[in-house]
Design brief:
CATH superfamily of the largest domain: Murein tetrapeptidase LD-carboxypeptidase, N-terminal domain
InterPro entries: Carboxypeptidase_A_C_sf, Class_I_gatase-like, LdcA_N, Peptidase_S66_N, Peptidase_S66C, S66_fam
Distance between the termini: 13 Å
Family: Belongs to the peptidase S66 family.
Number of strands: 13
Radius of gyration: 18 Å
Strand content: 15-25%
Keywords: Carboxypeptidase, Hydrolase, Protease, Serine protease
Strand order of the largest sheet: 6-13-12-7-8-9-10
Organism: Leeuwenhoekiella aequorea
Protein name: Muramoyltetrapeptide carboxypeptidase
Low-confidence stretches: none
Structural class: alpha/beta
Helix content: 25-40%
Length: 301
Amino acid sequence: MLTPPYLKKGDRVGIVCTARKVDLDDLEKGIVYLKNMGLVPVLGKTIGASADQYGGTDSERAADLQAMLDNEDIKALWCAKGGYGTVRIVDDINFYKFVKYPKWIVGYSDVTVLHSQVHMLGFETIHAVMPVGISRNTKEAKETLRRAWSGNSLNYSINSTRYNRLGQGTGELVGGNISILYSLCGSTSSIVTDGKILFIEDLDEYLYHVDRMMVNLKRNNMLCNLKGLIVGGLTKMHDNSVPFGKSAREIVLDAVKDYNFPVCFNFPAGHLKDNRALILGRNVSLEVTEKGSRLAFDHVE
């Protein structure tokens, strides 16, 4: 994977809505975060736009995203908010200038669509906090985003959990939101996971939905050749009046029971206050022991 240029003081960071709508007031803390790092926020035309639940019509959101991707002065594209809607516009985007002048694409949840699409083009991206709601994120989460897009080293040590499966693995880190990965199966945006370490997280799903999605990833051969699995937040899961019978963690373990690779649960990333940054597409080393887990990113100058 190729690494976009790291950010330095004075660089311009574009903020756009690719999914749910956002008002300027929602971005106040995110703008302060950028300015405190010496970066210059540039707001897209979709900020304040509205079409039903979206930040403008599909064509408006696609045009705004395209303009930011094509603008050589914009050094990173920070998606304002997740929700739903990016998949509706991704096929209308021309990545020709992005490939010539790459930049960091940052966000999580619905932004998994862009992570996956850009990875198919061969570039790293950053799974991390977004401007909306950043005031609720931990100091550590915000600091790891700064480290990720500034080119500082990134390593994590995670407490052990009884669900973990011990072992070691190295490979390229890919993944994101389970619902999005599931929805992209069979499309040109579907990621290749062979020989890689997969990260997954999700929010507000019924347990049987989680099972259906994990079974679908398995049937698409996205689990069988992994070097490791990292499970982030499985947040606010629901059950029916007739219990499904397994927790979300147990569902994940059931989906990978036929394979032999390490599994790390409770990683602080996803729909959590402590949403630590992950450089997707970067080579990493994962070690899961009885004492805990360690994730180390290769350092790229």
